[in-house]
Design goal:
Layout lengths: L1 E8 L3 E8 L3 H10 L3 E7 H5 L10 H13 L4 H11 L3 H15 L4 H6 L7 H13 L2 H56 L7 H36 L1 H12 L2 H24 L4 H8 L5 H15 L4 H7 L5 H13 L2 H57 L1
Antiparallel strand pairs: 1-2, 1-3
Helix pairs in contact: 3-4, 3-8, 4-5, 7-8, 8-9, 8-11, 8-16, 9-16, 11-12, 11-16, 13-14, 14-15, 15-16
Length: 395
């Protein structure tokens, strides 16, 4: 295993050595034997793990390519060396080289991946580790690829359904901002000297215009400060959790969020169970996927299963299932194939979620268009109402 040793030697100053050793103590001993005063020792993998984040590293593509090479008859090291040869990203290449060197040192594949926690998530490592006991690495990679592609498909479906409403809101917001920030102040200056009695709503709108005209810079600073504070608040995990908790209390939205979380929960659990991981261990591993309120319920359900209750009974007792999913869990307990049944439950939840998203977007989009049109039209009518009154009086 490679270690980075920061050391000091007379005449050289502080330098960083790359040392091959079994542990940090041996790496420090090697450096001391060469006349260095050791300042610090750390595994090279720690530095490499910062090269890539989990979001930027093509984990699914890596798994797909590795699966294809293994199915073609290559050994694990040969497959990884082939991926290294074709890799053009120097940072990813360093990660592959480090994994290969650890495999040559005799480490297991899962242990090699575990040294890069910023790249390989715990679920991925656990799946690989379970496959090493059975010799089914290809099957484990296939399960993970299928699992991740299905999750990505659901996310893309939700994102694609939200694109049009977001664009509509952005365009409508910009039009309203232009009207309220530029056009209304101009009209306010025109009407200021007319001494005309204006309708109450028009008067309030023009008062806003005069406020912008006289104190526009101060208002702009205030708006920028408010937006900055909101962005900062949303970047705090505690604030996001509090907002999510509020959303969970909205009946229709909270129910859909619950279904979405259960779909991801059961799909991940199915992948781990199919990989040979015990159900209690798998439940502990997937708890991080759930909303904080549900994590406590899952912990109680896991304790209940340890005490001898069936999975269906524990899930029902702590509200981690639905009536349909409960029946499917009971069938899985009778057949002994809980992994397959949980995957079917996840598929059922995904289809239900997709139907709700489609229905919601079909209903929400025209309502949003009508609302934005009404607001913009109302602003225009309020601006021109004094002109209509003036034209009527002239006639």
């Amino acid at each position: 295993m490679q270690f980075e040793v920061k050391a000091l030697r007379s005449g050289e100053g502080v330098c960083v050595l790359s040392v091959s050793a079994l542990n940090e103590g041996e790496a420090a001993s090697v450096a001391k034997s060469q006349g260095y005063a050791v300042l610090s020792v750390k595994a090279a993998g720690v530095a490499l793990s910062r090269l890539k984040s989990r979001k930027s590293f093509p984990l699914v593509l890596f798994s797909q390519e590795l699966l294809s090479l293994l199915n073609a008859g290559l050994s694990l090291i040969e497959a990884l060396e082939a991926l290294t040869d074709k890799e053009r990203n120097p940072e990813s290449k360093k990660v592959f080289d480090a994994i290969i060197s650890r495999l040559y040192e005799g480490q297991a594949f899962s242990a090699s991946l575990q040294e890069f926690p910023a790249i390989f998530p715990p679920l991925y490592i656990a799946t690989i580790r379970a496959s090493e006991k059975t010799g089914g690495l290809s099957e484990a990679l296939g399960r993970f690829v299928s699992y991740q592609l299905q999750l990505d498909f659901v996310k893309k479906k939700i994102v694609s359904a939200s694109i049009y409403p977001v664009v509509l809101l952005a365009v409508g917001g910009l039009v309203m901002l232009f009207l309220l920030g530029y056009v209304v102040p101009k009209f306010a200056l025109v009407y200021e000297g007319t001494k005309t009695t204006l309708p109450w709503m028009s008067q309030q709108l023009l008062n806003w215009g005069m406020l912008l005209q006289n104190h526009g810079e101060l208002l702009l600073v205030g708006i920028v400060g408010a937006v900055s504070a909101a962005v900062y608040a949303l970047s705090r995990p505690s604030v996001r959790e509090a907002l999510l908790l509020k959303l969970w209390h909205i009946p229709a939205v909270g129910e859909r969020m619950h279904v979405y979380q259960l779909a991801r929960f059961y799909r991940t659990l199915a992948m781990l169970l199919k990989g040979g991981i015990p159900v209690v261990t798998a439940l502990d591993m997937v708890s991080g996927l759930l909303q904080p309120a549900l994590r406590g319920q899952l912990k109680l359900a896991s304790t209940s299963i340890r005490e001898g209750r069936t999975i269906s009974q524990a899930m029902e007792a702590y509200e981690l299932t639905t009536p349909v999913a409960l029946r499917m869990l009971r069938v899985g307990e009778r057949t002994g194939d809980m992994g397959e049944m949980m995957e079917r439950i996840a598929a059922f939840y995904d289809e239900e979620m997709a139907r709700w998203v489609e229905w919601f977007t079909k209903m929400f989009e025209p309502l949003l268009m009508a609302l934005i049109g009404a607001v913009i039209g109302g602003i225009v009518i309020l601006m021109y109402m004094p002109i209509f009154d003036l034209a009527g009086s002239v006639q």
